[in-house]
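G., the chain you wanted modeled:
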Amino acid sequence: MKRIFPFAVVFFLFSNLCLFSEKDLTGPLSKEDILQNIPDWQEMVASYIPDTAILEKIKAIHKDIQVEIFLGTWCPDCKEHVSAYFKIMEMADNPHISTSYVGIPREKEARKEFIQGKNILRIPTFIIYFKNQEIGRIIETPAKSVEEDLIDIIYKID
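Predicted structure as tokens:
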């Protein structure tokens, strides 16, 4: 029992450090803010391979689209899906798509000021706008992939 106790203490401390080591960036953010402060996200961006056929459709969009993304820099789903979005937008390089990012705090009680009036229940939440009107959302986990869900939403407008 004496030999297990020190191991258990070290394990507990290490696991809690890993859990809370992610930076909690909040408020308006840029892609650069996130990537400079959280290097793990850079690896996710580099490793994501978007569907090239869908990427070509995103490149061809000629309507002005705005995407507002609510994310937690500490959240694994955000890390995965927002990093994928970073790569998609980098590869698409479409000036008709503009994006804003809002960091949400880990503590639920502190989130209200960041999500006020937006009905954000889970993150990440991608809100897609055309002519300042919401046309769709990707909430927490895409149904297909970030790029395919995005193009499905955008193709609904006409």
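Residues 44 and 80 are 7 Å apart (CA to CA).

Shout if anything looks off.
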